[in-house]
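Q: Convert this sequence to structure tokens.
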Amino acid sequence: MHKQHKVYESSDGRYVVYEDTGRAPPTYHIHDIKTGTVYGNRHTLDDATQDVSAAVQHGGFETPGWDNYWTKKSKGSKSWHREHYGDPKPLKPTEIAKVTDALGKPIDPGIRHAVQMLARCGFTTTSSCEGHVTHGAPTPWIHIFVDSNNTLQRIQHAITNFNRKHNLSDAHKVRAHLGSDDELRIQTMTDAGKPSEVELVSGRTRMNKFVTYLCTPRSTY
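A:
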């Protein structure tokens, strides 16, 4: 059973950190009160409060200033997940439908096809979300385990070329953020100012198209 309680609030009142004691050891989740977005799975309170301070300083998460901070923080950091649990194990596409999270919930149907395609072409995913209008992040996202620089470069090059090929605006681009657990967060942006089911369906469709593009063999990316 998951139990969360508030352990920290930013100076401007926008961000609140909750401790989740339903796991051993506990994890920490950052809630953006303004947007309703939840940024989860920080493994220490210090880690969570540092990220909150950076978000306040740079005007929010997923801003250019935040990206620079996160990149510098991630370089050379030791993977907490690999240290404590070893490398994530790849799943067969047929196993995806049976996977559940810590609350016993299956992979969201709106993102399951993309996760299955990634499994078929050899990528290991660790978590995902189809995006939601009423809670959580209003964008579809998938965390991919990065086991080598070649994997990272392949995905980054594919994102750059895909966005250019489809002439996507900043509000609708595919983006990637490398975390300190050797996980790359892939997400298809939606108009966060006007989150709607129509926007989310469009974002899920772009995710499927991008994963198809990523998994299509080509000589260069």
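The helical segments are 45-58, 64-74, 80-85, 109-120, 149-165, 197-215.
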